[in-house]
Design brief:
Chain B: GO terms for molecular function: ATP binding; ATP hydrolysis activity. The complex is a heterotrimer. Chain A is mainly alpha-helical. Chain A contains ten helices and no strands. In chain B, helix 2 crosses helix 3. Classes of the chains: A mainly alpha, B alpha/beta, C alpha/beta.
Amino acid sequence: MPTSDSAFITALNLVLGLDPALLAIVTLSLQVSLLAVLIATLIGLPLGAALALWRFPGRGLLIVVLNALMGLPPVVAGLAVYLLLSRAGPLGQFGLLFTPGAMVIAQVLLILPIIAALTRQQVEELHGEYAEQLTSLGLTRLRRIPTLLWDARLGLITVVLAGFGRASAEVGAVMIVGGNIDGVTRVMTTAIVLETSKGNLALALGLGLVLLVLVTLINGAAHLLGEMARRRLG
Amino acid sequence: MTTLNQPLTQAIPSLILEEVSFRHRGQPLLAPVTLRLDGCHRTLVMGPNGAGKSLLMRLAHGLLAPSQGRLHWEGETPRQAMVFQRPVLLRRSALANLTHALAVKGTPRRLRKALAREALERFGLAALEARPARVLSGGEQQRLALARAWLLEPRVLFLDEPTSALDPAAIQAVEAAVDEFHRHGTRIVMSSHDLHQARRLADDVLFLCGGRLLEHTPAERFFTAPTSTEGRAFIRGDLVVSPPPP
Amino acid sequence: MNKIAATLAGIGLLGLSSPLLAQEEAPYITLASTTSTENSGLFDAILPQFTEAAGIEVRVVAVGTGQAFELARRGDADALLVHDTSGEERFVAEGYGSERADVMYNDFVLIGPSADPADVAEADSVTDALTRIAEAEAPFASRGDDSGTHRAEQRLWEAAEITPAAPWYRELGSGMGPTLNTAAGMDAYVMSDRATWVAFANPQDLTLLFEGDERLFNQYGSVVIDAERHPHLKHELAAQWHAWLLSDEGQQAIADFSVDGQQLFFPNAD
């Protein structure tokens, strides 16, 4: 391993030197993944809660499918979104392929099942405890969604973080629908793949370390937020 | 909200049960009950453990639907609230628990905090408004549940063994709260297996044993001359074991 | 509640500001090309010159040749620059492209462990070299991804009248770089385009063992996508790119590109 010790130095130089190309890549990575998490959260939380509260034919099947989709390989999600957004595909006329928007869509598809499925499980558990009281207070099922989501918030922070973890770590989907275009759709993970394929293992590892630090910082911030809420509300 | 601090004078609709029974997975848990609750009374639902007290309360409050028979209110269904043996409080501050109930009730946002604080004050919880409801003591939690019920302005208040897990001081506070509701014109339907508590509170008694309603009599008569053998044994303080449900 | 709302709003703003919405910049075309050109650094060298001359940005999607053809066939790329002459001609014949032209060439080289157990360095032709590898049953790492390089490698085995087989013949299904990484890890022989090899930074014990046979010639071609089949594409901009590649200016830019003082691509437009 002639390159291993220089990996840290390379990474350090890139970070401390605030290399503009690296900054652009880091910024885009965060923008794409955070926006994907935001969208998936806005859809996934109410969807998961509704799935926990409503009984309808096919509900069991839907839950099984959702749970299975948590393991959807990113490259398959990417391929599906590629076929949708390709000029020859049904949404081709919007010209989204090879743009950050396409990457956001692919990541939403990837993490929505995680957020919805885990929310469903947490809300259902909480509702088991609350159901009689909420019925007594006269809450309709629709009105229960915000009540339960808010009361499950400590657990849901972890759910959203799980989604963010998957979004920021995956490479298969953004590679296909983004195209890893320099300065346009290159993000941390695709840059790591590229540098690895060039044999620049030190640089690739350095980028990996930068990614790890960023993800750790965001997780730490969320953890603090959760701890604050926990201390405040017991 | 004008009625909150004055006794409610309008008549409370009567609750009528006709041959109401309940079974769960084919198992009969409550034999057909015919019953009428009216006036602004304090009705104590008594009986040994497993007699079906909680079940009857849940049917009456509408949390469960009867398997057979008919349960209805004479006239408009009144506002109701229920306080459970173990209070179910939201994972929020004491104050937020109350404002949530007001929001559900449809109280305008600008009025909620003032009303909630007033209720906290009334039940001796004013100092605890910012505390997470879940870290309050058992007695405080039950008082908070009562304060929440208070804000719903119920005409009928159901209480399911509200003091069974509390120490004497807390029991006293709950009983005082029940009196407060009653003085303001709320019908009380409360289950208990504590004879002394029943003697302190009851206007009339529903006595259940083994999933059957055995007596519905004014309190005095129940405590002096119960008609059923199980009732007599219960009053004597014998160990009454509920026979298996019908 | 307010804190959460503020956090969400913050994330939203971070997400919405800048590149996501700022798509309406300078005119650009999307070029489907191969990893070998991208990895060698050729594009980093020549694209700024074209952009300066024509005012057109070129966004490169570097994939395997098979995927590059597929992107172009579906109308997802404005231009195509690959190295599979017969594939390019078929692409034009099928009506997806309207024109193809030679742009440049580099060559393939045989790489292997410096110990050279199959004595490939002694070979007098590429078919001889492959025969030696097969006879020694020495590990050989193949791209196995239907790329231009993979197709060229398969043609060479055919010419040597050898049907390579496992366990010594290992199809990796990867790009050139990953294949070199893997070959380095298992001391295998491997065929690479010279550009990727010269720019490759993780050779470990691998070394260049055989080069120079005419059969190892690797021609790159630029294809103009058919305007009637995909009218939405930026054909005018793409035509400027195609013309620039073939112009004296473009050809000179290619010739000027070098890594470690070594010229990697040789312009040969007509």
